Structures are given as C-alpha cells and as structure tokens.
Amino acid sequence: EPGGVLQRRTKVMGFPPRPHFGKILMMDSISTGNKIPNSKLVDEAGKEFYLDSLLGNNLLITFFQEAGTPTCNRQLETFAQEQELFKTNKISILAVSVDSPEINQELKQVLEINYPIASDVDGQLAKALGVFNEKTYRAKRSVFILDPKGTIKYSNLRFSPKSVSDLLAIAEAVELLDQ
Asked: Is residue 10's pLDDT more than 50?
C-alpha cells in the first residue's frame, strides 16, 4: 500500500503519528531484581498471549516508540543482526510497542524481522516498567533482560541503537546471565 506503515497508522488507529516529546511516567517503575508483571500482549497476527508464556529461557524485551520511524527500524534491525549472540546465550527476543498488531505485522514483514513483535495495546506493561509517555501514548525506547523466571536482570530505560556503549552494555549483561 502506498505510504506504508505511517500512512496506515492514520487509517488503522484513527490518528496521525505523534511527536516524540512529553512526560515519561517513571513512578511505579519496576527495577532490576524484581519480577516483571504477567501482562497481556497481542502478537502480530492479533492473537492475545501473556508474557509469562515466553518465560523458561532468558528473554530480551525491547520497547520501540513507533513503527516505521528510522531510529525504531534501526533498533529492530540491530537486534535481528545480533541474534546469534542472543541465541548462543539462550536468549529469546521480543519487541514491544503500543502500535496495533496490524502495523507491527506490516513492520515485521517490511524489515524482515525474525523474532516476535507484540502490541502492548493499552500500554499496561510499558506503564508498569516506567517507560510509558502519557502525552504521546508511546513506549520509550528501552531494553530489559529477564531470567527464565521473569526476574529483571538488566534494564536500560534510555536505550539508543546508535550508541555503541548501550550495545556493549547489553552484551556484557548477556554474558553475566551464565555466571
């Protein structure tokens, strides 16, 4: 379809893309060492599932702000390119946004992402983790690594896929999981 993901956002969600500014909700955030809440999410096909259904192995959750934007595309592609590092360390990847399942499905196809992208449609998981922006109704770009029981072992609430130090910190956290 002409215009792609961003054009469809207006049709599917009923409003245009939002600017990336506003107050980030940081109160009630869950910190490293705590268990992640068992939130309901929706996969790209529109099927509901609970986060705990993905536990049993280590899990990297990366929140992205908005489908189809250059930085978010880069974020998702970076994790796809580094998937061998994660597989070697028995870590699954889950990308999450508050975009609709239809938009996430299109994004996954366009970028040829080989890991799941989930919709946190009501923003409950993003709110619980302290990465939800009420003004823009977007999740803040962030990364969490969970152990097999759902305990947060690493978090970066200001993740930048352009930052080598952010990527190195994730690699170090991955290596620490086995120790």
From this structure: no
Which stretch of DSSP H or E encloses residue 41? Answer: strand 40-42
**Backbone conformation region of residue 160, classed left if phi is above 0, alpha if psi is from -120 to 50, else beta:** beta
The model's pLDDT over 38-96, given as tens digits with 9 standing for 90+, comes to 999 999 999 999 999 999 989 999 999 988 888 888 899 988 888 887 888 788 999 99
Residues 145/173, Cβ–Cβ less than 8 Å: yes
- Is residue 83 within 8 Å of residue 115, measured between CB atoms? yes
pTM assigned to the model: 0.79
Q: How many residues does the chain have?
A: 179
- What is the distance, to the nearest Å, from the Cα of residue 148 to the centroid of all Cα atoms in its chain? 18
CA-based nearest residue to 151, from 51, 34, 38, 39:
34
